[in-house]
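Exercise 7. Given the components listed, write out the predicted structure of the assembled complex. Treat all entries as one system.
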Amino acid sequence: MSSDDELMSGGEMLARALRDEGVEVIFGYPGGAVLHIYDALFRTNDIPHVLVRHEQAATHAADGYTRASGKIPVVLVTSGPGATNAITGIATAYMDSIPMVVLSGQVPTNVIGEDAFQETDMVGCSRPIVKHSFQVRHASEIPGMVKKAFYLAGSGRPGPVVIDIPKNTTAPGEQYPYHYPKDVRIRSYNPTTRGHGKQIKKAADLLVAARRPVIYTGGGVIQGNASEQLIALAKELNYPVTNTLMGLGAYPATDRQFLGMLGMHGFYEANMAMHHADLILAVGARFDDRVTNTVAKFCPEATIIHADVDPTSISKTVNADVPIVGAATQVLEDLLKQVRHLKGKKDCAYSSEAIDRWWTQIDAWREAHGLWHAPRYQSRSDDIILPQQVVEALYRVTKGEAYVTSDVGQHQMFAAQYYRFDKPRRWINSGGLGTMGFGLPAAMGVQMAFRDAHVACVTGEGSIQMNIQELATCTHYNLPIKIININNEALGMVKQWQDMQYGGRHSESTYADSLPDFVKLAEAYGHHGMRVEKLSDLEYAMTECFSQRDKLVFMDIVVDPEEHVYPMLIAPNGSMRDMYLSKTERS
Amino acid sequence: MKRTLSLIMENEPGALSRVVGLFSQRGYNIETLTVAPTEDETISRLTLTTSGDDRVLEQITKQLNKLIDVIKVLDLTEKTHIERELMLIKVRAEGEQRAEVKRCVDIFRGAIVDVLPDVYVIQLAGSSSKLDAFIEAMSEAGILEVARTGIAGIARGAKAFRV
Ligand SMILES: Cc1ncc(C[n+]2csc(CCOP(=O)(O)OP(=O)(O)O)c2C)c(N)n1
Ligand SMILES: [Mg+2]
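Answer.
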């Protein structure tokens, strides 16, 4: 602190600290406990603020913004209901390791604990779903806490950080010298960024000696901006790559070496390759139960190298033979260097013939059941639209260049399977928590980050209704999102499970008679609505939709309600090679 | 298997609840837990005992290390170490019993810290099994109340576990 530090109130310090941190957008909603902050923002600040229509949407919008851009946004909500409304979005971000800083108002310090009006223990409520949290005790702590919050949110394994701010600490009356720290050191927090040299060597030896290798990567490669390094390593070795639902786009989908997504609704060739592999290199993935199927039967013949920035991810569900703690970029670079070094030696174990044989096997799997090899779906009648065809049309019309957000359900899986992402940060969905209602607000965040880009929200008539109020926010800020509502008149994914496991009893999963007229609904908010019912209209309608650059278009596309998502891993007790491939076939 | 972990962590509000929350959130159990600031006011030392196989313990240790407030975690179970627990116990001590209880306290090297006509309050420190044995010995006299602190632990030798 020096003598020329400017004097400011807590509210002003907060506003200034956000600017000094380089924050480019705030997603928020005002209320009593944050009125001092909103007033300070009004008076002193030039950071754009997006006024959402529900606090959950503020967190999802912030989430979409950072997934697409890599920049860390801020969420600002009031105490009590404002804070609890934000909880679902914080949990969503936490599960997918998405950085964000959430500022929640709190009742004044002197009444905390007295069940004051709009008091909720936000630090307590959010504790299991944040990377860390702070509560301001004194206004003078604000700049330092903001600095720490951003540092923690974005470094190591990223995640949401909450700062709980009692109203009195932002009051305009009291002023303190403002100083924004240049850097920050937290003695109890030193994330490892570089994998251990000995482990890298061990891993590289195994890599070049592999005969049936698979590179399996997750959200960590996207969040860690390691796509380039992944491609370089895969190309050097000519090894197949599969991505998790969270990791799509890390490896170009249109490249021959890409096997598609793996896991529950993953590609046949990806799941088969995993099951038969003798070596798996996992990077920034966490062996989620939706990937492994029955852990005891997971990849029975494989040696597993597992690199992750978070040591707790390693050997949590599946034991790693070679654990490497480090950032994805660094680990992949070091591996590439070592692999090149080994390949330069005369007696290197690498065998391109063996890898060719592995590719022959993989290509046979592809040919048999690969989703991109030939259409695997079958229409019941010529003019009924299938959900897969909607995503394919979207892919063609946007030339694979759109940012695609999604909700949760069958439509999400179809989007993940049929939109081929060639670039990271283009596919934005709630993978870990599976939050219906994520898609539209996330798309708002993406569009805020990239005002001129095509942003499509692939959703279902169930999910879209969970945050439909955000259509107003889109009007407010002219966000020309394209909503692709795959309307199967049901909670399709629930219905699919009921078809497969509950004798087709559709308990509370249909509501055809109470669906709104989505076209009129969109129009009521000032947007453009379209309804598409026939396959022969689909392509034209999709083109028409994306030609409207400046308007939000709501495409309500009626699809076959009977369609199921396949492949689907057989559970319980199945391995990764056990899949349903259609209503009548299994692997 | 029983494990004793020692943690050095920031003496910050909320730090303890994060440690405790982690155990319930991830389905691990805590058997005993003691915590207090150290000679350095900014740091707390926590000893906890839990149970689990190697795999569970590895996860617990990693998860604890991941908490921002936790500076270091040490598994004392793997080292030669000292564990002590303190107990305050209120027992009935009337008539002939009085002398018997007193003798027992002496044998266990405890101390009588409050004396009433028919009751003693006894202080006893030592390993948990010693405390268990004393409770067993007092059961006939009649135990009115037991307050145990849980284990505090430290590794043997000159090497210090600190920031
Ligand atoms: C907030 C929330 N509630 C419930 C669920 C459980 N769930 C998963 S998919 C699904 C159905 C989604 O329906 P819709 O959005 O129409 O998508 P569809 O499966 O029909 O494509 C439900 C209810 C969830 N994931 N999230
Ligand atoms: Mg639906």
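Discussion: The radius of gyration of chain A is 25 Å. Chain A touches chain B through 18 residues (CB under 8 Å).
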